C-alpha cells in the first residue's frame, strides 16, 4: 500500500523503523502520512489538469475535423466554447499553441 501511495523506499524504511519503535513514534508516523498525502494530492491535481488539457485537445480536433479546418475552433471566442473548457482556454492562451 505504501509504495502504491507513491511513498519512497527511504520513507517506507523510516516508517518501518518508527513502527518497530512502538507507540512513542505515533506522531512521527502520522506526520509521515500527512506529508505523503500532500504529495499525492498535488500529483492528483497535476494529473487532473493534464486530463483536462487532453479533453480540450480532443474537443478542439473533433471540432476541427467536423469543420474541415482548425480555423473554426481557433476563431471561437471563449463564450462560444463548451463551459468546461472556458477557464482552461484562458490558461492555455498564455502558452503558444502548436497544431
Word description of this protein:
With 99 residues, the chain is an all-alpha fold. The protein is 71% helix and 0% strand. It is built from 4 helices and no strands. It has helices at 9-21, 26-67, 71-75, 83-92. Helix 1 packs antiparallel against helix 2. It is rod-shaped. The two termini are 41 Å apart. The mean pLDDT is 92.
Shape, principal axes of CA atoms? rod-shaped
Helical amount = over 70%
Q: What is the CA-CA span between the terminal residues?
A: 41 Å
Relative strand content = under 5%
The radius of gyration is: 22 Å
Low-confidence stretches: none
Q: What's the pLDDT, averaged over the residues?
A: 92
* Helix-and-strand structural type: mainly alpha
The largest sheet, given as strand count, sense and whether it forms a barrel, is: none
Beta strands, count: 0
Element order: H for helix, E for strand:
HHHH
- Counting DSSP H or I runs of 4 or more residues, the number of helices is 4
GO molecular function, one term: DNA binding
Domain Transcription regulator MerR DNA binding: 2-55
Protein name: MerR family DNA-binding protein
Organism: Blautia acetigignens
